[in-house]
C-alpha cells in the first residue's frame, strides 16, 4: 500500500506550487490536498477536499483520523502580516494552535510533519546571515505565532521538517512581485522601503528543495532560500528591469526609496503596518552543505522563475 501524504493549504501560492512539483517528481507517497473553501482554477491534480478550516481544531483532528497520513505537509497559514496585528485570535489559532494539533497527532501516530516557517521568527537585529539555531525574537504578531508553532512542533516529539523561507513569490497572487508589477504598470511613482533586507525566494525554489529534503528523510530545521540578499527597494528595481524587458512598449512607474518609518506613516490612514525585521537574511549554509552544492543567487533564481510566468 502506498503511504499517504496530506497537504494543508493547497490553495495558497506555496501549496499550488508544491502540488505541481509533487506530480513531476515521483514520490513514495500519494497526495491528498485539503483547502479552505475557494475553488481552484485549472487545478492540475490529486483529490481535493473542500471546506476544511484548520482553525476548527476538532474538525482538524477528525480529518487527520480519517486520512491517517504518514506525512503531513502544512502550507496553510494566516499570512497577512499587518492584519494579524488586529486579528490576533484567528492568526494564533491558524498559525500556532492548529499546528500544535498536527504535531501532536503526528507524534501519536508515527507520522512525519513538514511545516513552513519564516524569517519573521527572528528579530532582524543581527547583521549576519541567520543560521537555523539563531534565537527567536519575533517583532510582530505573525512572527510570534509562527515562532510558537515551531516550539509546539519541537515539544511534541514528532518527526519533523521545518522549512524556513522568506519573501516568497510565485505566479499566484498575492505577493510582492505581482503587486509591484501591477503598481509599476498603473501608477506614476511607487514608494518602496529601502531599509529592510532579506532574500527573495520563489515558491518553485522552496517546493523543489522541500521535496528533496523529504525524499532524503531529513529532519530538523532548514533555511530554504537562494544565496545573496537585497532590500525591497532593490528588489523592486529588479522587477522593473525584468518587466521593461518583457514589455518594452510599456511606460513604467518610477520607484522612490522610502524608510520603513515613513512608509508606515504614509499607510497609517489605511491600515496599521506591522513592524518588520530589518535584516532578515537567512543563511542557507546548512542546506548547501547537506546537498554539497552551491545554492544559486536570488537574482538568477528570479530570472529563471520569470521564464515560467509573465509579470503582467
Ligand atoms: N508569503 C511569504 O512571503 C512567506 C515568507 C516566509 C514564510 N512563509 C510561509 O510559507 C507558508 C506558505 O505561505 P504562502 O505565501 O503560500 O501563503 P498563502 O498564499 O497565503 O496561502 C496560505 C494558505 O493557507 C490557507 N488557510 C488560511 N487559513 C486557513 C484555515 N483556517 N484553514 C485552512 N486553510 C487556511 C489559505 O486558504 P485560502 O486560499 O482559502 O485563503 C491559503 O491557501 C506559510 O506557512 C507562510 O507562513 C511565507
Automatic annotation (TrEMBL):
GO MF term list: dTDP-4-dehydrorhamnose reductase activity
Keyword Amino-acid biosynthesis in record: no
Entry's EC annotation: 1.1.1.133
Residues annotated as domain RmlD-like substrate binding: 4-304
Pfam families xref list: RmlD_sub_bind
Catalysis: reaction(s): dTDP-beta-L-rhamnose + NADP(+) = dTDP-4-dehydro-beta-L-rhamnose + NADPH + H(+)
Key words, A-Z: NADP, Oxidoreductase
SUPFAM superfamilies the record matches: NAD(P)-binding Rossmann-fold domains (SSF51735)
Domain of life: Bacteria
CDD domains in the cross-refs: dTDP_HR_like_SDR_e
Biological pathway: Carbohydrate biosynthesis; dTDP-L-rhamnose biosynthesis
Note on cofactor: Binds 1 Mg(2+) ion per monomer.
Cofactor(s) of this protein: Mg(2+)
Cellular component aspect of the GO annotation: cytosol
Biological process according to GO: dTDP-rhamnose biosynthetic process
Function: Catalyzes the reduction of dTDP-6-deoxy-L-lyxo-4-hexulose to yield dTDP-L-rhamnose.
Family affiliation: Belongs to the dTDP-4-dehydrorhamnose reductase family.
Protein name: dTDP-4-dehydrorhamnose reductase
Organism encoding this protein: Pelistega indica
Species classification: Bacteria, Pseudomonadati, Pseudomonadota, Betaproteobacteria, Burkholderiales
Amino acid at each position: 500500500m502506498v503511504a499517504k501524504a496530506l497537504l494543508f493549504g493547497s490553495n495558497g501560492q506555496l501549496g499550488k506550487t508544491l502540488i505541481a512539483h509533487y506530480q513531476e517528481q515521483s514520490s513514495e507517497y500519494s497526495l491528498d490536498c485539503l483547502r479552505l473553501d475557494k475553488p481552484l482554477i485549472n487545478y492540475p491534480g490529486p483529490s481535493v477536499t473542500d471546506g476544511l478550516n484548520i482553525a476548527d481544531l476538532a474538525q482538524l483532528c477528525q480529518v487527520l483520523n480519517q486520512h491517517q497520513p504518514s506525512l503531513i505537509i502544512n502550507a496553510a497559514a494566516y499570512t497577512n502580516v499587518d492584519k494579524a496585528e488586529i486579528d490576533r485570535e484567528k492568526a494564533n489559532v491558524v498559525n500556532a494552535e492548529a499546528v500544535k494539533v498536527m504535531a501532536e497527532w503526528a507524534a501519536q501516530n508515527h507520522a512525519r510533519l513538514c511545516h513552513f516557517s519564516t524569517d519573521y521568527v527572528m528579530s532582524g537585529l543581527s547583521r549576519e546571515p541567520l543560521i537555523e539555531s539563531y534565537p527567536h525574537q519575533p517583532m510582530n504578531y505573525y512572527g510570534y505565532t509562527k515562532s510558537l508553532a515551531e516550539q509546539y512542533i519541537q515539544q511534541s516529539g514528532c518527526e519533523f521538517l521545518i522549512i524556513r523561507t522568506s519573501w516568497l513569490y510565485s505566479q499566484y497572487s498575492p505577493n510582492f512581485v505581482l503587486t509591484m508589477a501591477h503598481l509599476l504598470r498603473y501608477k506614476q511613482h511607487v514608494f518602496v522601503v529601502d531599509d529592510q533586507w532579506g532574500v527573495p525566494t520563489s515558491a518553485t525554489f522552496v517546493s523543489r528543495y522541500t521535496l528533496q529534503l523529504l525524499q532524503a528523510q531529513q529532519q530538523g530545521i532548514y533555511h530554504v532560500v537562494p544565496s545573496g540578499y537585497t532590500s525591497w527597494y532593490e528588489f523592486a528595481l529588479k522587477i522593473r528591469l525584468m518587466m521593461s524587458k518583457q514589455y518594452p512598449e510599456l511606460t513604467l512607474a518610477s520607484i522612490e526609496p522610502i524608510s520603513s518609518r515613513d512608509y508606515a506613516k504614509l499607510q497609517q490612514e489605511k491600515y496599521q503596518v506591522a513592524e518588520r525585521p530589518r535584516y532578515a537574511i537567512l543563511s542557507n549554509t546548512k542546506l548547501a552543505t547537506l546537498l554539497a552544492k552551491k545554492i544559486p543567487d536570488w537574482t538568477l533564481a528570479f530570472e529563471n522563475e520569470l521564464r515560467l510566468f509573465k509579470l503582467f
